[in-house]
Amino acid sequence: MSSWKHWPAERIGLALAVLAALGFSFKAIFVKLAYAVPQATPVDSVTLLALRMAFSLPVFAWVGWRASRSLAPLTRRDWALVAALGLLGYYGASILDFIGLQYISASLERLILFMYPTLTIVIGVLFMGKRASKREFGSLLLSYAGIGLAFAHDLHVAGDARAVLIGAGFVFGSAVSYAFYQAGSESAIRALGAARFTALAMLVSTVATLAHFVATQPVAALAQPAPVYLHALGMAVFSTVLPVFMTSAAIRRIGAARTALIGNLGPMLTIFFGCWLLNEPLSWWQMAGAGLVLAGVLLISKRSKPATSPTADLPQGLAASKAG
């Protein structure tokens, strides 16, 4: 059997996108485990986000340095693009998401947040001269029908309408922020390289997150029980570093729109992990929704033509650990 190095670039991209969705879907599990750690005052969301990004910082700094050693220095325009996308992506989207969660349930938040694949496609069509295929539209319809079915019950039990509108507005802003990051990152990755761009953008996000923490939280908030640090470390490695680079590598091979559509697996995976690891209930509505999402992912994953890109290596900086 041939190794993954000999797989077509498209197949590698699809596999990386699925693995990235798996890693990102575990973030909510780590967060719930951290919040459940017994202590007088539970860890707050800003502190937990700061710990997550701080633990990720050494990896992104090392990969960024490795990926930039033999490349030309970035121009002012390159730095401006990296800074803008870094602020939009894992800083802006995360902060807006946390604010929105103060007003609405996690289930409704996931439903709104995972509008970003639709928004990514719309941004590409409206601002980047791209065209969406019938298969992408079909996958989108199946996936979002599944997400809507899985969370329909939560929509029916909404509380204060004003609070729901405020929270939904913040989370929708998070989805828009991440969609612009994902759409803009495709051209940036091609110009700067997947590892270099991802590391630098995440460094921008990390600095912004830590600055937000310093401005709003006391330094004493960093003193947490050991289990909180372990969950934050797990979130940093398995739900930040690895899936972030996998997503960038997938975008390079199959594009931002298809990578975003496959990301629809995330909410369904979170539901299953929650049932398995946190003993959360699993309803038939959620199972039916998961089936539709999987059908959508299978539709977009079906190859319609040979991949045009011959690249089969992982990004620089990960190559040392993943390939010879």
Describe this structure in words.
By secondary structure, the chain is an all-alpha fold. The protein has one domain. It is 75% helix and 0% strand. The protein is built from 15 helices and no strands. The chain has helices spanning 9-25, 27-35, 45-68, 76-100, 106-113, 116-127, 134-150, 152-156, 161-192, 194-216, 226-254, 256-262, 265-277, 284-301, 319-322. Helix 3 (45-68) runs antiparallel to helix 10, helix 5 (106-113) packs across helix 9 (161-192) and helix 6 runs antiparallel to helix 12 (256-262). The longest helix has 32 residues, at 161-192. The two termini are 18 Å apart. Mean pLDDT is 77; it is low at 303-324. It is found in: Cell membrane. This is Drug/metabolite transporter (DMT)-like permease. One of its GO terms (cellular component) is plasma membrane. The chain crosses the membrane at residues 46-67, 79-105, 111-128, 140-157, 163-181, 193-216, 228-247, 259-278, 284-301. It is a multi-pass membrane protein.
Compile the SSE list and pairings.
Elements: H1 9-25, H2 27-35, H3 45-68, H4 76-100, H5 106-113, H6 116-127, H7 134-150, H8 152-156, H9 161-192, H10 194-216, H11 226-254, H12 256-262, H13 265-277, H14 284-301, H15 319-322
Helix pairs in contact: 1-11, 1-12, 1-13, 2-11, 3-10, 3-11, 4-9, 4-10, 5-9, 6-9, 6-12, 7-14, 9-10, 10-11, 11-12, 13-14
